Amino acid sequence: MKILLLVLLSWRPAAASLSKEDLIEKSEKAVVKLEGWPSGHGTGFIIDADGLIVTNAHVAEEAKPDFLDAKVGDIRERTRPSSYEMTVSYEMTVVFADGRKGLAALVLAKGHGDRRDLALLRLKGEKKNWPAFEPLELDKRPAPRKGEDVIALGNPKRFDFSASLGIVSGILRKCGVKERYHTCVQITAVVNSGNSGGPLISASENQEARGKVIGVNTWMAYPETTQGLFLAIGAPDVWLALDQYRKVRNLDNAKIGAFVRPVAKDPSKKDSPSGLAVWQVEPGGPADDKLKPGDFILKVNGKALPEDPKEAQLYFIRAIRNLAPGDEVRLVISRGGKMLEVNLQAGKDEPLPKDIEFTSEALPRGV
């Protein structure tokens, strides 16, 4: 009888069996408000029992205390560096749903201008002083389903620990500065300033997905001219960032130093090529002396690219983004009608050289 009682007391309903109200109540315990410096704030969420917090880099950047002070006459202007990388150098105040406060140390973040807009923090202090919470789980699907119910949790403006409901209205969107992300989720759940870094949770009837994080709330798209266009960084990009962090302790994107462009078949020409073409190669980059403009990429690391040129471009960019700097890249290309194998090592992504410019409407994508 005692054993049965202990089992019953320790049993907790799975997320799949929870109502939306219970799902919000349960998930909110692992959501935190991140108080910035000097007055900004955002949201984060805990993903493991050791207090690892996921948020946006631009939320963590608001708390960076060592911005440059530039003295101009008698006026002191506080300016932010145009490019920044943050390592373990400062702490943020963390506020839990029950009102308790603590500290979290910045583990690592990368500036959102040219790299991933993701940051990781770690709760400080003894676990016994933390509120009770169950870490949120990341969804393992490549993408949610369009029409899937979702819940966005966060701290918009001064309305802390708010929840908004909506659906997935688009998947695998390209978004972010220079469209660095390719797994973004478009949603109708309202996301405002302060929601950044908060979890987008599936309320799907799919029991394997319900209650899991399918994205990190990040953007209001074109707020001046549109309504209801909200975007979250997809869970696959978060998995990738965590995997890279745990392997090499950084969130750098990989690159091969090439610009690729989809080329459609010209129906007026019998032997017109089509597919994913190399448009330009970055001098001194990993692909320099390996690839040439006009090469067509057929396979990457043993996987054939889709036949549709636009799909091939997206597939190829995603494949390179899923690598870490230093990983091997094996390509099969077509050059002048001949099949060639090309092996190279992925480099670390950096801002584009100033002397590389494109004026064509159909811009090639850099990888």
Describe, in plain words, how this protein is organized in 3D:
- Strands 17, 18, 19, 20, 21, 22 and 24 form a seven-stranded antiparallel sheet that branches.
- This protein has 367 residues and is mainly β.
- Mean pLDDT is 77; it is low at 3-11, 64-89 and 351-364.
- It starts with a helix and ends with a strand.
- The protein is elongated, with a radius of gyration of 23 Å.
- The protein contains five helices and 24 strands.
- Helix content is 14%, strand content 36%.
Helix content: 10-25%
Mean pLDDT: 77
Order of helices and strands: HHEEEHEEEEEEEEEEEEHEEEEEHEEEE
Form type: elongated
Sequence-ordered SSE layout with sheet pairings:
Blueprint (H helix, E strand, L loop, with lengths): L1 H9 L9 H9 L2 E5 L5 E6 L5 E4 L1 H5 L6 E5 L2 E5 L5 E2 L4 E5 L5 E10 L8 E5 L25 E6 L7 E14 L5 E7 L11 E4 L10 E8 L9 E5 H14 L5 E2 L2 E6 L11 E7 L14 E5 L2 E2 L4 H13 L6 E8 L2 E8 L1 E2 L16 E2 L1
Antiparallel strand pairs: 1-2, 1-7, 2-3, 3-9, 4-5, 6-8, 7-8, 8-9, 10-11, 10-13, 11-12, 12-15, 13-14, 14-15, 16-23, 17-18, 17-24, 18-19, 19-20, 19-21, 21-22
